[in-house]
Amino acid sequence: MTAHLTDVTTRRPIAPPRRPWAAWLGVGVLLVVLALGVALHSPWLSVQEIEIAGAERVQAAALLDRAGIGPGAIMIWLDTGAVEAAIAADPWTGAVRAHREWPDRLVIEVEERVPALWAEGTGGWMLLATDGTVLEVADAPGSGLLTARLDLPGVPVGMRSTDPVPGELVALSQALATPLASSSRVVSVDGELWMETPGHWVRLGTAIDLADKGRVAEVMLTDGLPEGATLDVVAPRRPAVIPPAAMGLVEPGVEADGESGSAPAVEGEGDGA
Fold first, then answer.
1. What does the pLDDT look like over 6-47, one tens digit per residue?
2. pLDDT in tens, 221-235
3. What pTM, to 2 d.p., does this model score?
4. In 74-88, which positions are buried (b, 16+ CB within 10 angstroms) versus exposed (e)?
5. Which helix (H) or strand (E) holds 30?
6. Domain 45-112, second-level architecture
7. What is the C-alpha to C-alpha distance for residues 105 and 14, in angstroms, rounded to an integer?
8. 134 near 126, Cβ under 8 Å?
9. Which end of the chain has fewer CB atoms within 10 angstroms, the N or the C?
């Protein structure tokens, strides 16, 4: 409790001495708060430049605009997680990282998914990434990748199939060098998978261990096979080369580029180790 002195002449309390520095301290704090508020909302600390690296297929600018993120946003309030979520909405986005560079730059680094295979589905041709994500659906396959005409169940863009077959086909495409993959197609004949390559048919059997089968086929086709010979890699550890004279022909009813194709008919056991 503060002690009060009494003036014995007037009998009135004597007021404690004034402290002018307290008032000035309050004014100073107020000025600092005001200055900070002005600084945070000034152009010096708002986004003036957005740098997007690695986005070729990803429509990053449009996604940011749709999310209401753009120049003028206050740096300190900018939610980089929201920026990353906006970019990740594009199926081509494999990974994304956003960070601030003071005083006025937003940097976004995008790692896009890599296309691996065109696979025919019930809703059209699906472009699958190396992780199995459907990147696009088209009426016809594009060029430069392995194609698989198997009438697979359709999958929406941005999703992955729960069926293991598309994943096996992607693994096959990854096992093949680009020149061979881009010039080959996989079809189904009497319940078996066959791969048509320039000059040769490759018997794959069931959709199991397609990566191993692809690696064996790549090596043997590169080394060279007799003209018209069929390569059997159903058991990839025991591949077989079958000369044309030993093969019959079966019409599988598969069309490629508007023409019907045929694959050799082979008698043999199922996949083995």
1. 444 555 555 555 556 555 555 555 544 444 554 445 555 788
2. 998 888 889 999 999
3. 0.76
4. ebeebeeeebbebbe
5. helix 20-40
6. Roll (3.10)
7. 61
8. yes
9. N
Phi/psi of residue 74, nearest 5 degrees: -70, 125
Domain ranges of the chain: 45-112, 115-251
Residue closest to 104 by CA, chosen among 84, 65, 74: 74
Q: How many other CB atoms are there within 10 angstroms of residue 194's CB atom?
A: 22
- Across residues 84-90, what is the average pLDDT? 96
Look at residue 267 and tell me whether its pLDDT is greater than 80: no
Helix (H) or strand (E) holding 164: helix 164-175
Which backbone phi and psi does 194 adopt, to 5 degrees?
-125, 145
Q: Dihedral through CA 123, CA 124, CA 129, CA 132, nearest 10?
A: 40
- Rounded Cα distance, 93 and 113, in Å: 6
Verify cis geometry, omega within 30 degrees of 0, for the bond prior to 141. no
- CATH value of 115-251 in 3.30.230, 3.40.50, 1.20.120, 1.10.10: 3.40.50
Q: Token pair for residue 208?
A: 């199991």
Residue 145 CA, distance from chain mean position: 17
- Residues 125, 99: Cα–Cα separation, whole Å: 37
Angle of CA points 170, 136, 126, to nearest 5°? 45
3-state secondary structure of 253: strand
Single-letter code of the amino acid located at 108: I
Q: Which residues contact 116 (CB under 8 A, 6 or more apart)?
A: 128, 129, 130, 145, 146, 170, 173, 174
Report which DSSP code applies to 178. H
